[in-house]
Amino acid sequence: MDYKELFESGMSYETFMSIATAREVEKMENISKNISICEKYIEKIKNFDKGYKFLLSAESWCPYVRATLPVLMKMIEINPNIEIKIITEGRGFKYLREKLDISEDLYVVPTLAILDENFEFVTRYVGRPSKYRNIGFDNVKEEYFAGYRSDDIVEEILKRMGKL
């Protein structure tokens, strides 16, 4: 299955949220209230020179997904030329993992494939920001899971896209 087929067969954000439990929706809504993206990153997102497609492998039970998805939705709010489709962890493991060259034992959700407007691969974002390997995740995890580290997620995505 190619990226276009995967993207087009994915769920909308609304569908994804409709199959989440009430508790998962509540958690994500609470996180969304805490999302704040700095002006520098907002300007970078606004100035994307073309459209992008975010193909996200996710499950609503995952706290990393609940921290990441509201940030992605905020990016889409800032620049409506970004589209998102969501596939399950199982479909991501079966189809996306191999395309992104992720070994079976390292595949996690969220896994995000960033595609250009022609469904060509641009970059990927997996799990959480890589900067946490240096500063330690335990130092920031409470803030991260509450939505207060959204700039870290945006920064990683922008760097991987070559926008920083």
Automatic annotation (TrEMBL):
InterPro entries: Thioredoxin-like_sf
Domain of life: Bacteria
Identification of the protein by name: Thioredoxin family protein
Organism from which the protein derives: Fusobacterium mortiferum
